[in-house]
Records
---
Amino acid sequence: MERKVKKIKVRLLQTEEKKLPITTPFIKLDAALKFSDIAQTGGHAKILVEDGKIRVNGEVCTSRGKKLAPGDTFEYKNLRYTVMTADEDQ
């Protein structure tokens, strides 16, 4: 009996790196998702976080109130944002 081999094409998505400048010592994850236009509303941000679709510093985060400080990263799909102070962005 002959086996059929299926060939599949895999397309790797390149992660897009972006910066999120803040003027405060930290920003909460749900606010960061709104400011970065990943979430349209606070409710949308809550759903994304609770569903485990957001990674903070490389790990899944399910706490929408997580405080992000300059140097922290958060990811959704192929977008990665790095939080930085506003003066670092210049």
---
Amino acid sequence: MGNKIISRQRRARKTRYKVRLMDIHRLTVFRSSRHIYAQVMLNNGSEVITAASTNESAITEKNKGNIDAAAKVGRLIAERAIKKGITKVAFDRSGYKFHGRVKALAEAAREAGLSF
């Protein structure tokens, strides 16, 4: 593996360890070159409570790998989490830098009612 991937995984491990100590649900993000995925799961990662991604038919956009699509995923994951009774989560950005699509997803989730 390249150094870039190893560094991202190291940052992700540090974040997940700190989130596990907080003992609340976590909102995880994974981004690929074409799509972005978000999940709300238990703090130990054993069970996914709700998920949203740009692969779903609810997000109909020509270019699904951009900031607008990420914001739609953020709003969608927040709505689904609130329906399940979850309002406070810890944001696990999986080692990605907090800018661009990851930042757009986080800000949209905050605006829709999630607090982190």
